[in-house]
Structure formats: structure tokens, C-alpha cells
Amino acid sequence: MWKKNKSKGKIEKSFKYRLYLSEIIKVIIDKDLEICRWLYNYLRELRIIEWEKDRTEIKYTHQQNSLPDLKKLYPFLKEVQSQVLQDVVRRLDKAWQDFYKRIKRKEKLEKLGKKAKAVHYPRYKQFGRYDSFTYTQKQDRIELKHGKLWLSKIGWMNIRKHRKLEGEIKTCSILVKNGKYYANFSCGIEAQPKLDTKLISLDKQIGIDVNTSEDNFWVLDTGEKKDNPYFLEKAGDILEAWAKKLSQKKHKRSKEDKTKSSKRHQKTKLELAKQAEKVANQRKDFAFKEVKWLRDNYDFFGVENFKPSKIVEKGKGKSKWYSPKRMYDSALSLFLKLLWDKVAETGQKVVKVNPAYTSQTCSRCNKRHPVKQELKDRIFICVFCGLELDRDVNSARNILYKAQITEFGTNFVKQVHASP
Ligand SMILES: [Zn+2]
Predict the structure, then answer these.
(1) How far is the CA of 55 from the centre of ligand 1 (A)?
(2) Is residue 393 part of a domain?
(3) Are residues 101 and 156 in the same domain?
(4) Is 418 domain-assigned?
(5) Same domain assignment for residues 215 and 174
(6) 221 and 280, same domain (yes or no)
């Protein structure tokens, strides 16, 4: 994934690799995670005490500076790299900044006499819930050599690099997921200079309609279409079935009952997590491939400013998480994010446009029809100029047109479109 970096011209890119570890290293990592979790919960407790006393907000730097004294009190903290501990403080602070924000929002609502949801403290990290820690590259604490990764205080680890790491390593996070170990590097790399969009020829400019129907993942203004990947439909059903199985296996217990869930229940849970991971990987591969194809063929992209539907919040039932619609939405979100992020590296251009009226405006005469056509009508028919066109292609053309207006201005675009 990509992130914009504050320093000019640099982009952050992350690379995730699987680690193959000896039992000893696994023990060290698990122990480090436990120490991090302990520290997180300990500092969280201190923050709660101060907050409940007189609503004092403990500052990040305060907790950071308390680390040396804490190490004297609790020598086991010394087993973990100092920067890793600092990162724990940082993560906790982030959670608390969110908490303060939510408190402020609640107070604002209450002042207006509105009902506000209760605000809870950042969560206590249960066993196994603290699943990653982060090293920062300073004074050679991270080394990558001959297919092996070295971290100070941990040692050498076998790493499977399926793709090349680029740029300069900034941080390395170790994470454990479903019993597997990974290293996630965040690297700073140079951004390509921006293309002059005015120099991009028209045949390299494309409008993409993404939220079209059950049949298509995207439709281009050229008429090209991409079918929805089959696994998205299937995945929804499979995950839903698993979730159902999971809810059946859970024994009904009172809220106070803190006993561990049954072995069988845990096994099902792990199986569900594995299935979900598999789907997520398929989704990722698909999105990567689509974005690559588009970037190889085009330089300027008009896309709608896509907002995933909020069906999740409606249904309280957990299985709603796995609905096919949600699957499509998350694949689309990922696809668009990738497209957006990738062009940051190459200097290509994505313009997001408001999708309003793109399906009820004629892409030839630009006149808007008063009513939206029904979804089942696959052909857009213009009552003004007589245009008959696939409705998604019509939308994609409108999206491109809107994007061009945003980028080049109305006059420039009118000139271009007036010439036959
Ligand atoms: Zn028309």
C-alpha cells in the first residue's frame, strides 16, 4: 500500500513477506508481543486513572519519558528493543486521541440537546489481540541480507521475498496472523515527476464506471467491460455459512461468564479467519491485476467518487459482513485505492468525479433526463438526440467528460469534443 509522505517527492510503500521461523525465534517474538501487550494495557490503565480522577489527558511525551523508570521497575521490559516500546506508547496515544475526539463530539451533541452514544475507553488488549510490533531503522537495528532478516534483540530469520523490496527501509513490523508470521516493511521511495496532463493524448484518457451492475466490475467509455470475478459471489456464501456455523458452536453464556470458548469453537473461528484471508488475497490479486492492466494502457483516468454502501450497519447479524454486496464493495474500494495510490508513483492521473446524474445524462448531447432509468434497462435512449447506447458505457463517457472538465476546464474540453 501507498501513503503520501510529508517530505517532498517521497512516497511510502510497504512490502509484506512471510517469515519461516525456528521454534526459538517464534518463542522470542511471542514473548515480545506479550510484553508489548502488557505495556499497552499498563499504560492504558494509568490513563484511565487520571481521566477518571479529574479528566486529565496524559500526554504522549509524558508516557514516552516514563519508559526508563518503568524499565527499572519492570526489568523484563529491557528484553524488548526501546523503539518497539516507544511504538507501543504511540499506538496507545493514537487510540486515546480518538477517544478524546469522540468525547468532544458527544459533548457537542449533548449541548445541542441531542442523544449521543456512550463513549468507551480504548479497548483492553486481550491475550492474542496484540499481534504486531514495529522496529524503526536507526543504527542498523534492521538488516536484510541473503534472504534473511535480522532484527536486534531477536536475531536472524528466514524470509520469503516473492517480490523485490524497493527504496529505503523506514520501519519493519513483525506480525502474527492465523498462526503465520510476517514481516512488513515500510519504505521511502522517490516519486516520479508528474506527467503534464495536457500532453496526454485522448486515446490514453479513459472513463471508468465501477458501480454498474451485478455483471460488471467495471465498464470503460470505449465499451470494454470486465466481468465480476466469480469468487466474490462464492466467497460471500462460503463466509456466511462459516459465520453461521460459528454462531451455532458458541455456547450461550451470561455476560459475566469469562471462561474460555471451547476448542471446537476456537477451531471454527480460525478456519473462518483462514477462509476470509484467502478471499482477501484473491481480491487483492484481482485488484492488482486490473489496476496494472489499466495503467499499462491508459494515463488519465476519470472515476466516480465511489462510496461503499452502508448495509453493514443496518443488519446487526454478523453474517451481514459477508454479504456478496459487501464483497463487491470492498473489492471496488481496494481497486480504486490501488489505482489512486499507484499513479502517485508514475505521475499518471486519476480524477474523481461526483457520480450524480452520470446515468441519466446523454453523453452525446449532454442533456439531462428528468428521471433515472430503471436498472433493468440496459440501453440508454436519449429522447433529445436519439442516441442509443449501453447505459454503463454512457455513464462511463459522462464520467470521463466530467473528469476532463475538472482537469482541463470547460473550454478546452468543448473544443476537443466539438471536433469530429
Ligand atoms: Zn442526447
Answers:
(1) 63
(2) yes
(3) yes
(4) no
(5) no
(6) yes
Cα 308 to middle of ligand 1, angstroms: 30
Q: Lowest mean pLDDT: which of 158-167, 171-180, 233-242, 331-340?
A: 233-242
DSSP-based helix, strand, coil % in the chain, nearest 5: 50, 20, 30
pLDDT at 306: 78
Q: How far is the CA of 381 from the centre of ligand 1 (A)?
A: 8
In a domain, 300, yes or no: yes
Distance 388 CA to ligand 1 centre (A): 9
pLDDT at 314 over 50: no
Residues with Cβ within 5 Å of ion ligand 1? 362, 364-365, 382, 384-385, 387
Q: How far is the CA of 363 from the centre of ligand 1 (A)?
A: 7
List pLDDT tens digits, range 52-69. 999 989 999 999 999 999
Say what percent of the chain tops pLDDT 70.
87
DSSP string, 121-162: PPPP--TT---EEEEE-STT-EEEETTEEEETTTEEEEEE-S
Cell matching residue 52: 477518571
Domain that holds residue 133: 2-190
**What distance in angstroms lies between residue 383's CA and the mean position of ligand 1's atoms?**
7
281 CA → ligand 1 middle, Å: 43
Q: Are 369 and 404 part of one and the same domain?
A: yes
Q: How far, in Å, is the centroid of ligand 1 from the Cα of 40?
A: 62
User: For 137-142, what is the mean pLDDT?
Assistant: 80
Q: Tell me which range, 76-80, 230-234, 373-377, is most confidently predicted by mean pLDDT.
A: 76-80
Q: In the chain, what's the furthest Cα-to-Cα distance?
A: 81
Q: How far is the CA of 364 from the centre of ligand 1 (A)?
A: 5
pTM: 0.64
pLDDT in tens, 336-346: 888 988 887 77
Is residue 36 assigned to a domain? yes
Handedness of CA 87, 88, 91, 93 (dihedral sign): negative
CA of 386 to the centre of ligand 1 (A): 6
CA–CA separation, 288 and 112 (whole Å): 46
Q: Are residues 19 and 124 in the same domain?
A: yes
283 and 394 assigned to the same domain = yes
What is the β-pairing status of strands 155-160 and 148-151?
antiparallel
Q: Which amino acid is residue 107, in one-letter code?
A: E
